[in-house]
Amino acid sequence: MYNLKAAVSRLDFAPETESMEVTDIATGHFVFSPLSGRQVSYGDLDKVITGAGYEIEKASIEVIGKLVTNMQLRVEETDQTFHLVNEEELSRLREQVSSDLPVTVSGQWKTERGIDTIVIQKWSTGSS
């Protein structure tokens, strides 16, 4: 498990290894919160994980940002844009949230055509 933590710790957005929590040593599941103010990259994470001899079964992410298009969320702190998918949740989000209102979006994190993508599982605004 140390090899996995050591590999992830080389990423620009990774916290110190002590901040990475192993949740299941048998399967290699672990959790970490990226450093604040840094852009994240699923592609970079996948590269270091596979380079350490592991594979990502599933990754989740939660970000706070503003809708900039019908299918994109921009995180102002890092100026990073995420592509959003899950038509049902995306439709509700577009109907209920204006582009000037911050929204928290969480869901499965992956890369589609080289773009960091969130499959929306849930979302909320500061007033929700």
Structural notes for this entry:
The structure is a single chain. By secondary structure, this protein is of the alpha+beta class. It contains three helices and seven strands, in the order H-E-E-H-E-E-E-H-E-E. The protein has two domains: 2-51, no CATH class; 60-125, Nucleic acid-binding proteins (OB fold (Dihydrolipoamide Acetyltransferase, E2P)), CATH 2.40.50. A five-stranded mixed beta barrel has the order 3-4-5-7-6. A two-stranded antiparallel ribbon has the order 1-2. Strand 1 (21-24) and strand 2 (29-31) form a beta hairpin. The termini are far apart. The relative contact order is 0.16.
SSE layout and pairing:
Blueprint: H1 2-9, E1 21-24, E2 29-31, H2 42-51, E3 60-69, E4 72-75, E5 80-85, H3 87-96, E6 103-112, E7 115-125
Parallel strand pairs: 5-7
Antiparallel strand pairs: 1-2, 3-4, 3-6, 4-5, 6-7
**CATH class identity of the largest domain:** Mainly Beta
Q: Predict the CATH topology of the largest domain.
A: OB fold (Dihydrolipoamide Acetyltransferase, E2P)
Coarse structural class? alpha+beta
H/E element string?
HEEHEEEHEE
Major beta-sheet overview: 5 strands, mixed, barrel
Count of helical segments? 3
Oligomer: single chain
**Percent in helix:** 10-25%
Q: What would the principal axes of the Cα set say about the shape?
A: elongated
- Known CATH architecture of the largest domain: Beta Barrel
What average pLDDT do the residues reach? Answer: 90
As a whole number of angstroms, the C-alpha radius of gyration is 15 Å
The largest beta-sheet arranges its strands as 3-4-5-7-6
Strand portion: 35-45%
How many discrete structural domains? 2
Spans of at least 5 consecutive residues with low confidence: none
